[in-house]
Amino acid sequence: MSWSNKFSVGVKTLDDQHRNIIESLNELHAAAMKGQMKEVAGSLLAKLISYAREHFSAEERLMESAKFPGLAEHRAKHQELAGKAGVFISRHEKGDATVYIELLHFVRDWQTKHMQNEDQEYARWFSAHGVH
After folding, report:
1. Domain ranges (residues) in the chain
2. How many helices (H) and strands (E) does the chain have?
3. Is the pLDDT assigned to residue 120 strictly greater than 80?
4. For labeling, which of 47, 82, 108, 117 is most exposed (least CB within 10 Å)?
5. How far, CA to CA in Å, does 46 sit from each of 31, 49, 62?
6. In terms of C-beta density within 10 A (0-12 exposed, 13-18 middle, 19 or more buried), how is residue 77 classed?
7. What is the pLDDT of residue 132?
8. Would the pLDDT of 121 be above 80?
9. pTM of the predicted structure, to 2 decimals
10. What is the mean pLDDT of residues 35-51?
11. Do residues 76 and 62 lie in contact, with contact meaning Cβ atoms separated by under 8 Å?
12. What is the topology classification, in CATH, of domain 11-128?
């Protein structure tokens, strides 16, 4: 996956965070392609979760300050994503080797559904309300 303007929400800080998340997803994919998921998944998952938490928090703070009407729904989506990520981490820690393919599908869906679609809802609001 590579950065594209279709991921941009028009706020540099958030766009930079999206780039970091995409880079982590690419690292995860590269490890899978090299058959190294078991060895590197833990550290990559931790890095990805850390980026995601930081990003979700930053998004939600901006949504609050801009009075974005969809904040509660978007926050719930963040909590759902974080919960699913936690399940993947738990499965990895228990040695479940089947988790890796599911994880790659999950992060791909996260990228396309959340970043490309759901985040664009607040991007339009931010743009209309002068948040850059």
Report:
1. 11-128
2. 5, 0
3. yes
4. 117
5. 15, 5, 24
6. middle
7. 85
8. yes
9. 0.82
10. 80
11. no
12. Four Helix Bundle (Hemerythrin (Met), subunit A) (1.20.120)
